[in-house]
Amino acid sequence: MFLILFYIILGLIMGLVLMLTLFRRYKMSRVLEKIDMDIILQGEFTLLTYNVAGLPERISSAITPRRESMIRIGQLISDFDIVHVQEDFNYSKFLYEKSTHLYRTIHKGKIPFGDGLNTLSNYPILEYRRIPWRHCIGTDCLTTKGFTYTKIKLAKNIYVDMYNVHANSHYAPRASYARQKNINQLMQYIYDHSADQALFVFGDFNAHYAFKLDNLPLFVEKTSLNDGWIDLVQRGHYPDVDDNFMPLPMLELTNANESIDKIYYRSSKRLIFTAQEYNIEDKKFIDASGKPLSDHLAVSMRFKWEWKEEI
User: So which domain of life are we looking at (predicted)?
Assistant: First the structure.
């Protein structure tokens, strides 16, 4: 009798723990939620990509305390409709608690188990997948970096594919070769899973057009993607390859400079995107003393969209 009572109590405790865990996960991450939406044929939204430097504070290259910074980042990213974050490793709960986005991907975990990639959205996230890179080198192999795929519902029966990216870093030949392989893997996945679909690809590419070992021009050509910075700031002009290329410090960038944090987009035959604004957010994501909240500057864009009925 005592043994039976013990197992009954143990089962109740385990059930309570499971309920609390599920409640916490639902509170922290709403995704794959079925929801009805109004029939609309046009609108606009804002996007943001931000490497939030969420490594443990003792090894982070950001200059501000990570917990407090992540709380502030969570508040500020709420001003944007769809947000991709990278390096969201060890302080994700603080970012999620302060964000007002209704839909969030479920955090995969801290280093070395997580990929640091999450999406926060005011629009329903109907599907998401995490895809690790097949190639890495050095410190980039210490955690499972890669890219994510999400399907987001803009309106009733209107969907868009979105990819969040964090490619391998550094400029040494072997690191650049691994990054080329990353971009090729992403390119093939887009071809296999998003052919003819309207889509956005944004995140930390760790790559420049001007760096001769990066393959961004091939990526743009093969995927038919538009670069928001090229379209709105450069007026269609791509930087020339520079044999002596040296990147600017990331916290000194302005709209006039190419960032490794990029926003690409592509319309489909029926879902048309028109880029309206591009901005490197060099003044928004700062603490009370004016210090940047990360070692990257966030990049934002505003888009109008229109659904064209078949003629």
Answer: Bacteria
